[in-house]
């Protein structure tokens, strides 16, 4: 297995998108561009860094226990008295 096959972000699914403006430091943009190049090499499909950002954020939030714990609904059906 090549090193590029070990990317946390797998092939990108087709999704419906909502436009959102995102600003970041130039160094982060350079890292995103490098990640996009590695992703394209690993999965054989060119992808822009901008397309990776939503999937990276989704993966980050899915792995954040505090976020998952804070968004879990704990309401049980009320029992009639």
The number of distinct β-strands equals 0
Beta content comes to under 5%
Radius of gyration, taken over Cα atoms and rounded to an integer in Å:
18 Å
Element pattern in H and E: HHH
- Measured as a percent range, the helix fraction is 40-55%
Low-confidence stretches: none
Mean pLDDT across all residues, rounded? 83
Distance between the termini: 61 Å
Quaternary state reads: single chain
Shape: globular
What's the main sheet like? none
What's the number of helices? 3
Structural class: mainly alpha
Q: Helices and strands in order, then pairings?
A:
Elements: H1 26-43, H2 49-62, H3 65-71
Helix pairs in contact: 1-2
List the keywords.
globular; 3 helices; 81 residues; single chain; DUF2274 domain-containing protein; 0% strand; DUF2274; mainly alpha
Question: Can you put this structure into words, describing what you see?
Answer:
By secondary structure, this protein is mostly helical. It has a domain at 24-61. Helix content is 48%, strand content 0%. The chain has three helices and no strands. This is DUF2274 domain-containing protein. InterPro entries: DUF2274 (IPR018733).
Give a short summary of the structure.
Pfam families: DUF2274 (PF10038). The chain is 48% helix and 0% strand. With 81 residues, it is mainly alpha-helical.
